Amino acid sequence: MDGSVWVGLASTLVGTTIGGGLSIWASVVAQNRQAKGMRDLRTEEKAEAAADEAITQLYMIKQRARDFPREHRDLDAWQKELSRLAAEMDPAVLRLRDDALRKRIEEVLSCMDMVYDLTDYPAHGGSLMLPSEVCRYGLDCLGAAVRNRPLPAPSPAILKAREIDAVEQERMEIARQEDER
């Protein structure tokens, strides 16, 4: 055989090998991108499902917070019910992907643990509607996240709840210091 035939065969073999290798590499890259896209889609679907679940649960908490008991003897049961509902919401909150959103919803839920303080501080701006207004703020945050909008600024209700919590924390610190004396 002539040398040019061998060069042609070698060139064809090298070209086929390179072309096949690049084709396989491109297929692997495309499959990896598709797999990543599917993982991202599943993660996004789970996050949306968690947000939907959190919205539903927080709405139930808001409705229960509006049902302030008329009798003082029913107050403890009402407060325990709100705390229980807030605790049941924790798994959904843990699945929220946005850290800022999760922190805000956790703050709203912690307010349900101090619901008695929120309703028993008229001198500091507490009111019977404050717990449900705090829940409304949480719902606004969840709604903004679902719509891919920026989280809203803290509402007057959550600011008032923070203020009441600070007053209560200060009162507890003073009581603790007095106990130590």
Structure commentary:
The protein has 181 residues and is mainly alpha-helical. It has one domain. Helix content is 80%, strand content 0%. It is built from 7 helices and no strands. It has helices at 3-66, 75-88, 90-94, 99-113, 115-119, 130-146, 156-180. Helix 2 runs antiparallel to helix 4 (99-113), helix 4 (99-113) runs antiparallel to helix 6 and helix 6 (130-146) packs across helix 7 (156-180). The longest helix is centred in the first third of the chain and has 64 residues, at 3-66. The radius of gyration is 29 Å and the shape is rod-shaped.
Record keyword descriptors for this entry.
181 residues; mainly alpha; 0% strand
List the helices and strands and how they pair.
Blueprint: H1 3-66, H2 75-88, H3 90-94, H4 99-113, H5 115-119, H6 130-146, H7 156-180
Helix pairs in contact: 1-2, 1-6, 2-4, 4-6, 6-7
Short account of what is shown:
With 181 residues, the chain is mostly helical. The chain has 7 helices and no strands. The chain is rod-shaped, with a radius of gyration of 29 Å.
